[in-house]
Every structure is written in structure tokens, then in C-alpha cells.
Amino acid sequence: MDLLVYMKNRRIRHEGVLHTALSCDDILCNILLRLPPESIPKLIIVSKRWLHLICSSSFRHSYLSRWRVGFNLLGFFVCNYLYLGRPQGGAHRPRSEPALPLLSTSRECDDLKFSGILKKLGYFIDSSDGLLLVVVPKTYFVWNPITKEQIKLPRPRVYFEELCMAFIVEDSPDDDISYRIVRAKCESRFEEINVVTIETFSSKTSTWCYSKLRCSSTISLSPWISGTVIGGVIHWYAAQGNVAIYDPDHHDKHIALVKLPGPFDFDAQVVGESLDGCLQYGWSCKAGLQIWVLEKGLDGYSSLFSTDKQSNLSWSMRYKLNFKLMWKKNPSIATKCIARSKETEIMAFSPQNSETVFIRTGSNIFLYHFKSNRMEVIQYQGRGSSILSDFSKVVPYYKRAWPQSVSCGNGNGTT
Fold first, then answer.
1. DSSP reduced 3-state for 348
2. Comparing 161 with 68, which gets the higher pLDDT?
3. Among 82, 118, 207, 380, which lies 20 to 30 A Cα-Cα from 275?
4. How many CB atoms lie within 10 A of CB 26?
5. Is the dihedral of CA 399, 403, 408, 414 positive or negative?
6. Are 78 and 394 a contacting pair, CB within 8 Å?
7. Helices (H), 171-259
8. How far is the C-alpha of 186 from the C-alpha of 179, rounded, in Å?
9. Over 90: is that where the pLDDT of 55 sits?
10. For the chain, what is the mean pLDDT?
């Protein structure tokens, strides 16, 4: 009997210690931070306290710094660069063509597509973590599809006849969404210029800030193409087969220029982030595509932004794909692809992934898996004819796969 009493009292003390530990937010956070990403969505149903803690911006910031959390593909936006920066007397968008064409691959995107809000947002420029950057003549808006909030930005201070942009949503330890928008002037002629004029908007200050970036070589950015942001660093295409790299948080106002690998006779090109955190670059021509990675040095990519030493970083090819062989290894898809007569081209990388790439043939979109040589057909809702134009670029629309709740912070809807 004494043993039974002892065991019962020990169990009560153990439960009391456990309850006390789990009642402390700091201890609970330390426990949850060690759990893998696939378990987090299941834990939000334990209690309202756990839900609020997991969905909070402070916990999200700490967790994302520790783990690589995946992204959900919502759909694809179709950008027609004919209408952005349209000169006087230039091409007009037909009334039958939506300003913000969206090819939906998810229920959430279906709701967005048929809500009617896209007709009011203007032209698509870029997206980041689910937020949209759009423009109507001379006015920029940031739109949050979760809160349905449309934020009108103040007018930029400087007029650029031709420009390229970048949209950066930052991890913020508080409950406010923080972002930056960078406008960069594109020179119409490639002259002996080693300065890039930019204007940066910060949501923290709600103002535009004018500055100039120095480059060790002559530089001319390609207009009307949004920059690819990797780890807060912006990558823009530049003239003569280069990529321009700018880190807004670096103390020097310096923009680096890196020569891209491969020939200049490609039909399409994309940049992105590899699984091991490197800059990867892909290009395609009629015959096939190649994927290259910029190898990191001992100090990562820091040497790119150093003005007192030369960077010795080099590219290495990871994948090479012949389109004829690709179709041959996927005969069932090849026979069903009615637009196979159209040229096949690389479209986009999957986020933080080296093993898959989006390609398209006419209005057909595929996800190709390099290791298995398998093609996956991406089913979407939307007019196939809307992406047939030679001036259209199809851009994947993602949001980070992270639980959200109406009880947390900015009034986010549960996802």
C-alpha cells in the first residue's frame, strides 16, 4: 500500500512540474522551436494559448530562423510588360484582357480570382510571402490577400522613364508586416556609367529614400523585370549577360555585377535559390535547358560587395536537360500535350529547391523533377490563351506555409 501511495504522489508531483513548465511561455517556445515543421500545424488545435503562441510574429520569426519552412503554390500571375511604362501612343490593353490575369491552382486562389478584387488592383509588379505589389498609373499599392487590406503608398519623389523594381517582405519580431520596395533607374543606353540611381520605400517610415549605388564596372539594368529576392538580397538582370546583385542591408552602397554562364542565344532565363542556399541560374533554348549554381566562397558571397578585393566566385553546372529526351521519357504527357508544337522553355524555380523547375509549352505548365526525370502537369483555372503572348511572363504566386489565426495580431484569417 505504501508503494502505491508513493507512486501516486510521484505521478502527481511529475504532472505538477510538467504543468508548471508548460504554463511558462518561454519554456513552451523553446520546446516548440525544436519540433519539425510538419508537426506545427497539428499543435495549433491543442489550445487557444498554443494557437496564439505559434501564430505570433515573434515565434514565427524565431522558428523561420531555425527551420526552412515550405511554401504553398497558390497560382500564377501573368505579367504583360507591354503595358508597364507604356509610352505616349503605345499599346493599350484590350478591355477583354484582365489587368491582373491569374491562373489559379488552389481553392484560396479561386476565392481571390472570383471575388472581383483583381479588377480593382491594377497591374501586377511582384509578390512576396503572399503579399502583392501592384500599380495603377503612377500609384503603387500593397495588397494583403489574408486581411484584404489595400495599402496606398505615397508617390515616389523621382521620375524614372525606365525602371526595374524589387519587393521585399521582411521577417519582423513584432505583429506588424514589414516590407521594402526598391525602384532602380534603367539607363536607355549602355554608356560608361557605373552608378545606379535607386529609390527605396520602407513601411516602417512610410517614406521614399533616394540614393545612388556604385559599381566597379559599367552597368545598365534591364527594364520592367522585377528583381529576384533571396535572403533579402536583390538580383536584377543587367546588359551584356550579367546579373546585378544589391544587398540593401550592407553598409556600403555597392552593387555587384556577376557574369552569367552560358551563351546569349537563350529564349528564357530565371534566377532563384538552391536547396543549399546558393544563387542558381537557369536558361533555356529550343534544344533544352541548363541549371547553374554560383559556388560560395569561405565568406559566402561577402566578397561580391567588397570594394577592396576581387571576387573569385565561379559557376558550376548542376543539371542539363534535352527537351526531346524529356518528352520521350514522359510519353503519356507528350501525347496529351496539344500545344507541344509550341516551344518549350524554362519558366521558374521552385522556392529554395534545386531538384524541380517549372517549364511551359504554350498554355501548358509542368513541374519537372530532375532526379526522377518525371513531369507533373500543373492543373490551373484560367484562360490558356492569356499566356500565349510573347510579351507575357508567367510568375508563380506563393505564400509561406505557416498557420495563421484571427486571434493573432493583425486580424489574419485562419488558413
1. strand
2. 161
3. 380
4. 7
5. positive
6. yes
7. none
8. 23
9. no
10. 81
